[in-house]
Amino acid sequence: xxxxxxxxxxxxxxxxxxxxxxxxxxxxxxxxxAEAEVMSIHISFxxxxxxxxxxxxxxxxxxxxxxxxxxxxxxxxxxTDKQGLWNYSTLSTNGQMNxxxxxxxxxxxxxxxxxxxxxxxRKHGNIxxxxxxxxxxxxxxxxxxxxxxxxxxxxxxxxxRFEPNNPTNVYMPRANKDEIYKQLLADLAEAEQYCYWPKxxxxxxxxxxxxxxxxxxxxxxxxxxxxxxxxxxxxYRRSNDPELSQDKMMQIVKDECLDVINQGSNKLGDFKSNxxxxxxxxxxxxxxxxxxxxxxxxxxxxxxxxxxxxxAKDQYTQQAQGGVNGPLPYLxxxxxxxxxxxxITCVPYDWSKELTEGKSHQQLRAINKWCFxxxxxxxxxRIVTSTNDDGVNWQYMRLADVxxxxxxxxxxxxxxxxxxxxMKPVLDRALPAxxxxxxxxxxxxxxxxxxxxxxxxxxFEFAGEALRKADLVRWGIIDEKMAExxxxxxxxxxxxxxxxxxPVKIYWKLxxxxxxxxxxxxxxxxxxDQGSNLKxxxxxxxxxxxxxxxxxxxxxxDYIEGLYVKQPSLNCLWPIWQTFIDKSNNxxxxxxxxxxx
Length: 597
Description:
Layout: H1 5-10, H2 24-29, H3 31-39, H4 41-46, H5 51-58, E1 66-67, H6 81-84, H7 103-124, H8 131-155, H9 177-194, H10 212-227, E2 230-232, E3 235-237, H11 246-263, H12 271-279, E4 289-293, H13 302-306, E5 326-327, H14 330-334, H15 341-345, E6 346-347, E7 349-351, E8 362-364, E9 371-372, E10 394-398, H16 399-414, H17 416-428, H18 433-443, H19 447-462, H20 468-475, H21 478-493, E11 505-510, E12 517-520, H22 528-533, E13 540-543, H23 557-561, H24 578-582
Antiparallel strand pairs: 1-5, 2-3, 4-10, 6-9, 7-8, 11-12, 11-13
């Protein structure tokens, strides 16, 4: 759960000046007051239409893994404003975003808070003599980089505000994203000199505080974006800036990720345990989580959006929410049957609206309405009572990402044999040893085979964590993978190709505990004959692929075609919203990203 700003302020040193005498010098020369200013950046994450209610629910959809709107892609010809945010045809007048208090505005609010803290601590923090104040400066630089990185991911070329607002910079044009990336990479190189490793200080005992491990991981992520493909004014391509070449950026990725891995302050641990810990508000540093966007109990719509759906106020939650976003139906079937990530990531059920003695039970959804299962009300230690907010943190980066970024960079620089050691730990916890060995033989056959393995394993590892869209964009394969997604949906709908060995129906019953559901028919090779035999054991058949009423496919053509309605690579950015263009003194427009470098 999130740190309380009031608690930060109340911990001020006894000899701190009184509020009435505070000025910039007093605030930024007193650790506890300067800390409160840095922590105020978090407020902008939690604003109603910022990360909380707009960016985290909508950015990252649709991909070849994830979709939205009750796990239903946008209707091609009847898209709502919400669907318009992810169907690759977003308008600058979008009703969810074209307001002066949406994510775009709140991101700049957070940047302004960070700019003020950075300037104040540099001037008055005596960072040469005060290690804790140095850490605060590094934390502010890093939080600004978080916000700017997400701005560029979503909007491309945006105004570059790296100083506090003043009369000379009220109106600013869009800056080339390459210049922003170079600033962020430099800022993070500075920040990592200042920040403590996880648990090295009392400041970094929590995953809600920036640590050196996260700074390095974020710098690696930004380096991958900076040298990757992006939508630019003259097309979809890599940067031509020699400072952002693949060779230079991949070396940064390798160096930063290996520093984190070799330092050992974080451990991978068990795949499921990472998400249980997240749901239980356990923010103790040192495990897999590197940094989380902190939400208080009464803020944040993480489970609401990305969790398993509960249809009623039941034994696990007093909030009937969840299941807004979910996996594309074929993802479950693409996992290896022995991959423990499959049943944690992809959930074919929700929790019933009907209650028995105040308790609900699991019930089958439909093939076009899966839930993500990494976040679950039933794993929480507290009962959510808010109507819309659950207070679970957003896990912004975890150690598995560092391992796979390292593997990607080392493969590029040194080849697959050297890179395998950084992919192996992620697979060892997911698959039996003999299947890991088989993947080793497959992936290490060549650099190209290993990169294909990176694409595949980042899908299985991070589905439902909103990393995929940016990955597909930077790899230059978003058009290819989104077209492949439509073909896979078509094949699944018709039980053909890789999905030809699936039964027509699903067979299910409640377990003896009255809560859990037992399911037959979701594995390749399951048969309707065997499923029908289970009826004698209390199983019930459910139409899964074809509606019994009219014989039509449940995965409809509209579902498939609505996944994207324009070419993804040329429509992967949101436009700057019209309200900001109108108020920009003719400085802003949507005439195309700059992309001249």
